[in-house]
Amino acid sequence: MSSLLLSPLAAWANLPVVASFSIMADITREVGGERVSVVSLVGADQDAHVFQPKPADVKKLAEAKVFVVNGLGFEGWINRLNKSANFKGVTVTAANGLKPLAVAEDEHGHDEHGHDHGRADPHAWHNPQHVLRYVDNIAAGLSRADAAGASYYRERAAAYKARLQELDSWAGKQFAAVPAARRKVLTSHDAFAYLGQRYAIRFMAPQGVSTDAEASAKSVAQLIRQVKKEQVKAVFIENMSDRRLIDQLAKEAGVKVGGKLYSDALSSQPGARSYLEMFRSNVTALSQSM
Ligand SMILES: [Zn+2]
Fold first, then answer.
1. What does each C-alpha distance from 15 to 67, 84, 99, 130, 146 come to in angstroms?
2. Bigger pLDDT: 216 or 26?
């Protein structure tokens, strides 16, 4: 309370923070609380893989003190943006320090030339244990830009991490109820390998870890055969991907699309307006359909 007297709230302008996409923005708001104002460059239900910064985005970054990105090559557009904005603030690479999964080698025959083998899969936020690291990195970055807020950020980070731990153990229980042989899922792009690794689920997808290349006819045909042979029942569209490919696959394999997963973006609709909500929705949809 005494700190109110020393620095009246009215005199405090929030720390301006830019986040690369909606999931990073939400996690940053959880950690930064009332001391930060966060804008997201890529909005809800939008695809960060194919995002192209506009002059307005350059301006937002030029005015920010902190830039929070996922890293692991997810935002292929940040270097150019940093340069255009002449950004001199603190860049937080949220996934720093994680041991990333490598992009799967073309199991389904896709992307033979598009992938650099051994490249990291960027979608690490689909494992809440990794998000603990994101939170620590974000808290450290905010504290670097706003040293007076360090203990505030530390406390908020600890409270949010406790919720992430709860989420993770809840998710583990949901999947534990599903027999291992039925933990197979088809989605449009390969975004869920970390979730798969954490809870022993096999994900298949016609597109690779990015959405910027089309799936080949050969890989789609192979995937249809696989879905039939392995009797995959859980088929999902994603909130930020074109659903036509999955509709076609489902039709040709004779399975029904079971619902929607949130992969690379939050939603403006209830059910996935925060990371915690999004993860809960995904786990519920997956465990019920398998
Ligand atoms: Zn993705």
1. 11, 21, 30, 25, 7
2. 26
